[in-house]
Every structure is written in C-alpha cells, then in structure tokens.
Amino acid sequence: MSMQSKPRMVEAVMFFNERGICKEMLFAEFEAMLDGVVNLPEFADQQMRVAYVLINPRLLLRSVVFFYLDFDEKGQADGGWNMPLRHLAERAGRGPDLGAGPIRLACRSQCPVSWHQMHMWDPSLSPGQNDLVLLRDAAKRNTLGILVEEDAPPVEPQRLQMAPEDTWYAADPSRDVAEKLAAQMDSEHRLKTAQLIKQQRLRIHSLTQQHEDELARSKLAAEEQQKLLLAEIQALRQTLKQQEERHSALKSQLAAQADSFQKGREEMTRQLRALERHGRTEADILRAQFDGELQAKVAAAVVEHKEQIAIRDVELAYRNELDSQMQAEIERLRQERDRLASASGDQILERLAKLGVVFVVYHPGAGHLTIPLQDIARYQDNPLAYAAAKCFVSEAQYRQWLGHYQQPTCESRLPSGERCATPVERVDSPSRFVAGESNCCARHKASNRLRTVS
Where are the annotated coiled coils located (predicted)? Predict the structure, then answer.
C-alpha cells in the first residue's frame, strides 16, 4: 500500500439485466448520470434493476440497497427519481454475511422506509443465480479500480540500517511539522489525482464500450440491410430473367402472328376483289328484296299497333266507369260511418250518465268544472269559450289572462321591439284581470296612463 493513498469506504452502483450484472460505476458517475451529464442509450426506454453497494478497502460488501430506475427513449435517467440511498443503507436491517460480517440489506421485503418499498426489488437467492454472490464477486474483481488495503510486509534484517552516532540528535519540531504537512498535502493531492484519473478512465471506458455497442448494432443493421438488398437484387434478377424469356417468347409469337395476319390479309384482299366483281348484281337484287320485305313489315306493324290502341281505349273507358262507381260507394260508406259514429257516441255518453259518471275538467281560473251531458257538444267545439263563460269573462279576455297566468311578466314592447319581460304580480282570477294594467310593470302602467290622459 502506497503511503500517499489512504484506502476508504467506496460507494458504487451496479446495474442488472437478465444475464446478471451488466454495468458498474462509482457513485459520483451515477450522480452525474442523474444530473443529465451522461446518458446510457443501452438502457433506453427500460426500467433497470440497480444495486447501491458500499465496499470497504478489503473489497468486501458492507451495505446493499436494491432499487428500480427508469430511462426514457434517449437513455436519460428519470428526472423525478429521488431516493435517499445512503439513508436507506444506514437504516437497513441485517443481511447475510458476505465475508465482512452481516451486511445491511434494503430491498422490497426489508425496507426501512415504507413509502420507498414500491420502488425497490428483492434479489434472487437461488444457488444458480444469487444476486448477492454476483455483487460480491463483482466487488472482488475490482473493475472500478478501488484502492485496496494491503498488510505491510515485514522488513528483512539485512535491509535495516543504523544511523551514524553523530546524527543522533533531537529533530527540529517546526521542520517535522512542515514535512508532515507537506507529506499529507502530497498524499491528498495524489489520492485526488488518482481518483480523478480512475473516474476519467472509467468514463472513457464507458464511452468506448457505448461506442463499440453502437458500432456493433450499426454493423449488424448494415449486414441485415445488405442481406435484404442482396435478396431483393437476386429476386429482381430472377424476375428480369423471366421477363426477358417471356419477352423473347412473345416476340416469336408476335412474329408468327404477323406472318399469319399478312397471309390472311392477302387472302381477304383476293376474296374481296372477287366479291366486288360478282357482288354488284347480287347487291341490287338483295336491295330490292330488302325494300319489299321492309315495307310489308312496316304495314303489318302499323295494323298491329292500331289494334292495340283500340283495345287500350276500351279498357280505359271501362276503368273510368269503375272509378266513378267506387267514388260513389266510398262517399256512401263515409256518410254511413259518420251517422253510426254520432249515434253510437251519444248512446255511450247517455249510458255513462245513467251509471252516475260525471264529466269533470280543469281549467285555470275556473277550477274543476262538471260538464252536464247536454253541454258536452258545446264544450268539445270550444273548451276555452266554455271555461270563459264559467268565469263570466269573454273568450278574448280569458285567453289574455291565461297567457299572463302562465307567464306573469310585462308584455309591453321596448323601443328595440323586444318584450319587456319584467316579472309582475300574478292575477289569479280572470275577472280581475285588466289588459294593459295587470300584464304590465309599473313603468309601462304609468306610460299607458299618460297616453290615456293626453
């Protein structure tokens, strides 16, 4: 162990995938990743299982916290993630002994802070896949370059040297203090420099690995694209070959058909010339025969159509007569129906009256009215007039009062043409209703009075 480097406890973070531990980093680099300084594209759009570990100078685990961490599509860590890993590690319960006594273990089933339990996971402890053993072995491998505490080897006797007697004197206290301070500052400087160098090496290694992974993915994608293009080229070549063969066959077929058409055209030309020589006389004979037949057919068709028109005229006259008879029958049946309906309605009402049935209707202002049998027809003709008579007012006044009763607002018109619609006091009796007074607000009542006086 170098005298300038003093080993101490180291915080680290390790990521898990289905095969085991896939990435390790110091806590300082983890914090930089949370701050968005470094992204991890290999974890893009995934929820990763992560372990926060505390490693002593002898590369033994002292505390472990298992938690989840989400990454977006760009490989950036969730900005809202905030778990007190150090606090959880200090308050965690006892776990198994991994070489330095029982560790402090925080996971979903053993969480010192209940509201963080949903963001944690339980490690697998099966013999074939023990996550704690994987963490212990990863710490032993020391991929992160942690300073290790080593026991100082004993000094061999032959290497011991005795100082001369003339140098046996008391050391200068100020000089010793200065030398110790210089040695301490040099040691701290070397330690910080070594840590920075290791962090930069780790970051360079991480970026190199990231670039190698991206290059491998790009190479794989290029190879797959090349395979697809080669397959497409092969298919196009095969199609082209088939098209060429088909084109050649069609070309041969077209040449044969052209030769056949040429021969047929020559034969048709020869026959046409023969027909032209012998067809003139035959054409005259056929034309005369066709004209005679056409005239005979036209005459027969004219006679046939005239007969059909005469038949249609007779049918139309018969149908008109039937329509007249049907209309007369319909009118007779309608009158008979009305007579029977009126007679049956009156009989039904008389029967109901004899049985003690009373006909009662309700009208606003008149209340429930009992209608005698002899007034049923008059009520049916005009219910509002009947109700107005019972209220001792005219039908027009009753209609105005009914509109006021249903909507007690001012009915006067504003200069804009709209209704005033100011709520007014409702008049419950039609006989006390005065048009222009009861259905107007105070302002329009006063204006009506002024117009009346003037």
Answer: 219-278
Residue 74 burial (C-beta neighbours within 10 Å; 0-12, 13-18, 19+): exposed
Q: What is the pLDDT of residue 251?
A: 92
Q: Which of the residues in the chain have pLDDT under 50?
A: 1-4, 152-171, 198-199, 202, 206
CA distance 223 to 231: 12
- Domain definitions of the chain by residue range: 1-150, 360-453
What is the chain's alpha carbon radius of gyration, rounded to the nearest angstrom? Answer: 58
Phi, psi of 194 (to 5 degrees): -65, -40
- Looking at residue 206, its pLDDT comes to 46
SS (H, E, C) the chain: CCCCCCCCCEEEEEEEECCEEEEEEEHHHHHHHHCCCCCCHHHCCCEEEEEEEEECCCCCEEEEEEEEEEECCCCCECCCCCCCHHHHHHHCEEEEECCCCEEEEEECCECCCHHHHHHECCCCEECCEEHHHHHHHHHHHCCCCCCCCCCCCCCCHHHCCCCCHHHCCCCCHHHHHHHHHHHHHHHHHHHHHHHHHHHHHHHHHHHHHHHHHHHHHHHHHHHHHHHHHHHHHHHHHHHHHHHHHHHHHHHHHHHHHHHHHHHHHHHHHHHHHHHHHHHHHHHHHHHHHHHHHHHHHHHHHHHHHHHHHHHHHHHHHHHHHHHHHHHHHHHHHHHHHHHHHHHHHHHHHHHHHHCCCCEEEEECCCEEEEECHHHHHHHHHCHHHHHHHHCCCCHHHHHHHHHHHHCCECCCECCCCCECCCECCCCCCHHHCCCCCCCCCHHHHHHHHHHHHC
For position 156, what pLDDT does the model report? 47
Instruction: Identify the pLDDT of residue 201.
Output: 58
60/139 Cα distance (integer angstroms): 7
Question: Quick one: pLDDT at residue 174?
Answer: 66
pLDDT score recorded for residue 235:
93
pTM equals 0.36
